[in-house]
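Page 47, continued from p. 46.
Same chain as before, 323 aa.
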Amino acid sequence: MSTEGNRALVFMRKKRRKKKQEGYLLMIVPNEKGKIKSVNIPYLVFISFFVIMTINVYYLVRYPFRISEIWKLEYHILELRQTIAKQDKELRRLDPCLKATQVMASKLNSSNRFFVDMKLEYDKLRNTRTKEKDLAYREVYLPGYRLSSADQDHSKLEILNSNLSYLEEELAFTSSALDDLFKNYKTYDRQLDFIPTIWPLARDRRISSGFGYRRHPVHKRVILHQGIDIPSRTGTPVRATAEGQVTIAGNRGGYGLLVEINHGNGYRTRYGHNSRLAVRVGQKVKKGQIIAYVGNTGTSTGPHVHYEVRLNNVPVDPRPYLN
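Result:
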C-alpha cells in the first residue's frame, strides 16, 4: 500500500510541475480577418498577475472608506485644537487669580489687626480685661509661591484651589469675630444712651464750682456741693445727658425750677436753677433732648445750671461722666 501511495504522490507532483511549466496560452483574435496571435503566459506569472490585481481591487474598494476616516480624524483634531486653545486661554487667568489671593490675605490681616485694636478699645470702655490668648493676632498666611513660566498650569490650579479654601475659612472666622464685636459695640452704645455721658449745655463747659465740700456763696458756711455749676446766659437750652423718664419737673426750694430724670440702673440726674421747663413729670426723654432753659431761680447768685449725677440716690462727682 505504501508503494502505491508513493507512486500516486510522485505522479501528482510531476503533473503539477508540468502544469507550471506549460502555463496558459493567451490568444488575441482580431475583429477583422487577420492572423491570430497567441502569447504563452507562464503559470507563475499568471498567478502573480492575479494576486496583484486582487490586491489592487481590494485597496481600490477600501480607499473611499479610508478617506472618510481621515476626514473624520482631521475634524476631530480641529475640535481638540479649539478646545486646547480655549483651555489655554482660561489657564492664563490663573496667575492674576493667584496674585488676587495674596492681596485678599493682606486685607484679611488688616481686618484682624483692626479687630484686635477695637477689642482693646471696647475693653477700655467697659473696664474689662480679655485674656491674652483671646486677643492674639490671627495672621493669615499663604505659602510663599513665586510664579514662573516653568510651572505647570495644573499645579497652579491646585495652589489656587488650596488658597481659596484656606481664605474661605479665614474669612468666615474674621467675619464672625467682627460681627460679634459689632453686636457688643451696638449693645454698649444702647446702654450708653441711659448713662449720663454728655454735657448738659451744648457749648458752655466752664465749671464755676465743682463737686465736694465748699463755702456756700449764700449761706456762708461749708457744706457739701452735690453737683457742679456751669454758668451760662439766661435762656440757654439745657439738655438731658441720658435717656430716661422725668420724675421731677417743678419748683424745689433752693434748686429753684428743677428737673430730675430717672435713667435706670440706679442713675438719676438733676438740673437746677432753670428759668423755665420744657418737660413734665412722667415724660420720656431722649439723650440730648432739651428739657429746660438756664436761669437764676432758687438759691443762686447768677444764671447757671446746677448739674447732679446720682447713683443709687447717692450724689457722685459728674466730671468723670463728662469725659
